[in-house]
Amino acid sequence: MATNCGQMTSMLCSVALRRAATSALVALGVWLVLSVFFSLIVGVVANFLSPVAADATDQSTDTIANLQMQVNLSRLSPNELYTEATSIMLNPRLRTVTPGLVTNDQATGTVPGLMSLEQSMLVIWPQFVAIIAGTMIAFGVAYVAFMKQEVRA
Asked: Max Cα separation, the chain?
């Protein structure tokens, strides 16, 4: 599925940019930013939007808000969505896609054991929908750009 987003991004670059070399370099740059540097960018943006006080503890509301901001911003990356979805599907013992943000109150009462395929799909449903939606949006933008070029010709 993450490959679909990459293919749609490269198709969008191919349609939007005139030269093949420019298209390949832009698509490679987008992939590089989303896969390598995105986690660094997310950390900086989260610290700017939800700062943590210098005297904050690990369980303070500032720290938890900052971690939630980092998780939400990192979900803008197709790579992160794919990683979360595959980790749940390949390890049925996991109950959530963000195990670091589960408090003891949330963990009490959970039944130990393996989750069924249906339960795992319910956990990753938002990630699955976001990957499909990103692919459809990239295809739609590429289609509109292609049709505008064809109308001019």
From this structure: 64
Q: What are phi and psi of 103, to 5 degrees?
A: -85, 170
Give the residue carrying structure tokens 């005297």: 55
Q: Domain ranges for the chain, please list them.
A: 2-94+114-152
Would you say 86 and 5 are in contact if contact means Cβ atoms under 8 Å apart?
no
Please name the amino acid found at residue 107. Answer: A
The dihedral sign for the CA sequence 128, 132, 137, 142: positive
Tokens of 36: 């390598």
Q: 15 near 146, Cβ under 8 Å?
A: yes
Q: In a structure prediction context, what are the per-residue pLDDT tens digits for the chain, which is 153 residues long? A: 555 566 777 788 888 888 888 888 888 888 887 778 888 888 899 889 888 877 777 667 888 888 888 888 888 888 888 888 888 888 777 777 665 555 555 555 566 677 788 888 888 898 899 989 988 888 898 889 888 887 775
Residue at 8: amino acid letter: M
Helices (H) and strands (E) in the chain, counts: 7, 0
